Amino acid sequence: MGKIDLLAALCAAGLAIALLAYVIRNPLRFLGRFVRGLVVGGAVIWAANWLGQAHQFHVPWNPITAAILGLFGLPGALALLWLRWWLPV
């Protein structure tokens, strides 16, 4: 094996490692953002329920509502409020 072949093999290996790192990093980044959104969504639901006690307002506390708030942010919160008033339980 010549020096050129060794250099080409090292470049190919480095490129493969960089590609693998990129593929692994992005799903982990998405998972991290999703978990952070769940935590923030849960905190917002807790705060809304705590503040809404005086007006008999309550948003159900479950992973689905937290995920909606965490993933969609303010539009998700407005959608949950609209559903809560539109479908009184």
UniProtKB/TrEMBL annotation:
Organism of origin is: Kyrpidia spormannii
Q: Which residues cross the membrane?
A: 6-24, 31-52, 64-87
Superkingdom of source? Bacteria
Q: Which UniProt keywords apply?
A: Membrane, Transmembrane, Transmembrane helix
User: What name appears for this protein in its UniProt entry?
Assistant: Pro-sigmaK processing inhibitor BofA
